[in-house]
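Troubleshooting log. The previous structure file for this entry was overwritten by mistake, so regenerating from the original sequence record. Sequence copied from the archived sheet and checked twice against the printout by T.R.
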Amino acid sequence: MSVSIAQRDAAALGGEGSILMRQRRDHARLDAMMRRYAAAHGPSRDLERLWQDIVQLVFSHAFAEETVLWPVLRRVAPDGESLTGRVEEEHQAINDLIAQVERSVDDPRRTAWIEEAFALIRQDIRDEEDELLPRLREAFDDRRLRRIGAAWEAVRATAPTHPHPGVPRRPPGNAVLGVPLSVFDRIRDAVPRISPTVRTAVTLTGAAVAAAVVALLVRAVRGRARQARGST
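Regenerated output below.
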């Protein structure tokens, strides 16, 4: 039976630069931020900034997993397809919930939606640390785990940082659509502290831009696929 990476030290996980340690550090940081958010009282700019930090980490982290880690896991683990499929469903549910939160800053259900999103994120962390990531430890030596970690970090540094529910969960679709959306997200993140109302307006504009980009790229991909079929 696989041993959760939560129960193993850095040496057993391939060293500080391995993908397993990088994942565990992100998970611990997310958990600490969610606890801080839940313990806070009343709305404030600091609380909104903390929420945005959580959102940015959640989506850059998940995008890098879906682009780098889960394809590798599907290749090396007999049950990789079912394991990654379940986690992708969790990611989609988190995506949908947080998109709802970002669109509805004044909705009285916002707090309940955030609590539900936090519960899903914690479940996702448990599933990854207990079931998916140990499979990588079983499949690869320390050096390979560090190389995968470096690739994952590079993708995370340029990944989208906000929810885009219409983007596919798997390559190549997520990578193709994620690049332009990442540019928009990071421009939005660079805006100085703004009120939740203004941020919601920016978010809605971004959602419209994202939908247009996705539609255009999907049409382009389908067009190329039809041309390829026609030439064979």
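The two ends are 47 Å apart (CA to CA). Archived copy saved in two places this time.
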